[in-house]
Every structure is written in structure tokens, then in C-alpha cells.
Amino acid sequence: MKNVAIVGCQGIPAKYGGFESLVENIVGENASSNIHYTVFCSGLDMPDKIHEYKGCTLKYVNMKANGFQSIVYDIFCMMRTFRGYDTVLVLGVSGCMFLPILKLFSKNRLVVNIDGLEHRRAKWGKVARWILRTSESMAVRFADVIIADNKGIQDYVTETYQKPSQLIAYGGDHVIRSIAEEKVDQVLASYGLKKQNYAVCVCRIEPENNCHITLEAFSKSDKELVFIGNWGHSDYAKRLKNQYAQYPNIHILDAIYDLDILYIIRSNASIYVHGHSAGGTNPSLVEAMFFGMPILAFDCVYNRASTQEKASYFKNVEEMLALLNQVHDGSEMRVIAEREYTWKKIAQQYEATY
User: Fold this and answer.
1) CA distance 128 to 132
2) pLDDT by residue (tens digit) across 102-135?
3) β-bridge pairing 52-53 and 56-61
């Protein structure tokens, strides 16, 4: 029996973001009776504190898992893995300054998913960026296996550190579900939406996700947009909401955690807009690909790699406006997704690194 500890996420059941969905699905697709997972979770973010889920053990650290505190949170989680585990899967580099100590006093195999070049994100100040960049270099230096979730990230590791990495993306087929047509009609009607008559965008409202470009383009268009996000969490988000909520063709919705409702809104859209410019393979993009709809993605190496150059790409308001007036085919998105981004495949790839 291999005992695998997972650190670096908020916890499961997944309620937050990409790493949480990753953990929930790789433990759920655990194909080997010889692997037992232990997932370290935030006791403050996951107040129910259940101790077993989908066959794995959950352990808690009473700290917040996100923001700047994530660095200390990840280190405290790692400190509890010195004994009793064969492999430690570390998600993100926040706490990886601790890896030299973990490597010195433990025989664990260290597998690190370095995520999306966190030190380049606009939300961090100079000190945080230095810490994250240093942590990234420690991760690459001390990990037994480096996981890159996107070809762009893999190329970055090769060019920056002259180190090999394994390319393992995210799955997205967990979003597919079966819902009665009557409920579909009810949900769409409650939001004032008609099937195949609107674009949809789902993301955290941050500058690097180019929310301002998407909103400005649709404000100059007669096309309908449903934009789902955390509109109250920052001055940037609040300013955009105040500025664009007045447009009758723009529906600004707070984050939706009911997966049935989210599925109905996404699967009945005519276009998916993906503005992310950082972060490697983005889970929301992979999920959207399973709906087989046209995708308008911000033009960067990560999005082109994820969609294998088969989506439509924009860099500014004018380019997005031009794309909105074109006819697009999204059928190839589903073909790529079903070939590359199923959780069964992703779980098997992770298991091979242990």
C-alpha cells in the first residue's frame, strides 16, 4: 500500500477552485487499491471537518488556505508529512521554501505541481512575488517529479531551470450531468435567458482575467453576456460591476455554487468567453470545452496550448468585438476535451508519478 499525502489545497469536498476540483477527482478516480490518499485541509475554510471522503483520509490545519497566509498554511501541512507517507503531492509552490527541510528529514517522494507561475500574478506585491519566485525555484530543485499543467508551463521550466517536467493537465468531464428539461427551462427563465442566445464567462474577477476587456466589448455590442464571478471581493471587481451592470445586455451574477444551475447556464450558452492570461491550463476553460461550444479565449500561450489552436483568440476590445460578429464552430473543442481532459486519464497520470 502506498500512502500519498496531498497538501496545498483548501480541502475537499471541493468548494473553491481548480486544485480542490483536481484533488476531489483524482481521489474519486483512484484506480489502484494500492494507493491510500490523505488530504490536508483548512480547518477554518472547511468547518464541517469530516474525516473521510471518497475513501481518503482528511486531516485539518486551523489556518486559512488562501491569500498570503497560504504560504504558512502549506508549510504547516508539510510539517505533518515527515512520517507515515511514501509520497507527498504538493499543489502550488507557496510553501516550497520548506522543501529542503522536508527533503532532509524525510524519505518521502516529492511530487510538485508548480501551478501557473504564481509570482507573475498582478495581485501580489514585490515581497510576495520574491517569496513565490524563490519558492518556485526550491520546488523545481528539490522535487523528485515536477508537474506542469500546460505546455507553456513545461516550456518555461525547461528554459528557466533546464529541468524536465511531466505534462499533466486538468480534467473537465465532471461538469457533464443530466438534468430534466423542465428544470432547464425554469432556471433559464429565472435569469431571463434563452437557449443559445447568450455568451457566458465564469472566472475570478481579477485584472489578469481581463474582465474589463470582456465587459467593455459587450457594452459596445448587442450580444448578450452572462458574467459569473466574485464581484464583491476587490475594488477592481466592485468598480466593474458598478460600471457595467447598467447595460441591459450584460447579466452580472455572483458566484454560483449549485452545480446544476451552473451547468444549465453554461451548457445552454452559444459562446464561452475565457479571458485568463495567466495560470497554465485553466480548469474553467477545460470544463467549457466539454460543452462543445465556440470559445473566444485571450491570446496567450497557455490558452492556445489548452485548445490546441482550435479556438478563436483576442487581445483587446476591438478584436473581441470582431469575433462576436463572426460565426464559430465549437465541435472540435469537445473532441479535444474528450481525448485529453478526462479525469480518469488525469488520475492515472498522477498515480504513475508516485
Assistant:
1) 6
2) 999 999 999 999 986 665 566 667 777 788 889 9
3) antiparallel
How far apart CA 218 and CA 251 sit, in angstroms, is 11
Cα gap 171→204, rounded to integer Å: 19
- Integer-rounded Cα radius of gyration of the chain: 20
Is the CB of residue 205 less than 8 Å from the CB of residue 194? no
Q: b or e along 74-85 (b: 16 or more beta carbons within 10 Å of the residue's beta carbon)?
A: bbbbbeebeeeb
Instruction: Determine the Cα–Cα distance for residues 11 and 21; give it in Å rounded to an integer.
Output: 9
37 in Cβ contact with 27 (< 8 Å): yes
Residue type, 172: G
Cβ atoms of residues 222 and 249 within 8 Å: yes
What is the reported pTM? 0.89
User: Hunting for cell 494500492 — which residue is that?
Assistant: 34
Among the listed residues 201, 188, 197, the one whose alpha carbon sits nearest the alpha carbon of residue 244: 201
Q: What is the DSSP string of 281-323?
A: S-HHHHHHHTTT--EEEESSHHHHHHTTT-SEEESSHHHHHHH
